[in-house]
Write a structure and sequence with these properties.
It is elongated and about 85 Å long. The chain is 49% helix and 0% strand. The protein is mostly helical and 59 residues long. The chain has a domain at 35-59. It has helices spanning 22-27, 36-58.
């Protein structure tokens, strides 16, 4: 009795293993995609945190 060749059913799985889900990519923070206002707010917040650290260290 001859052995039948194994046929792979491609209808039930996806070959895009390397692609990341859109939700994962969208969740990443990118400074280049932020608006100028968002970058400014981020810079002000970072500066405030640093100044609070300096004030705390000196008191």
């Amino acid at each position: 009795m001859a052995e039948q060749p194994h046929h792979h059913d491609h209808a039930h799985h996806d070959h895009t293993h390397a692609a990341r889900p859109a939700s994962h990519v969208a969740a990443r923070l990118s400074l280049l995609r932020m608006s100028a206002g968002q970058r400014l707010i981020g810079a002000v917040m970072l500066s405030a945190i640093l100044w609070l650290g300096v004030w705390w260290a000196l008191t």
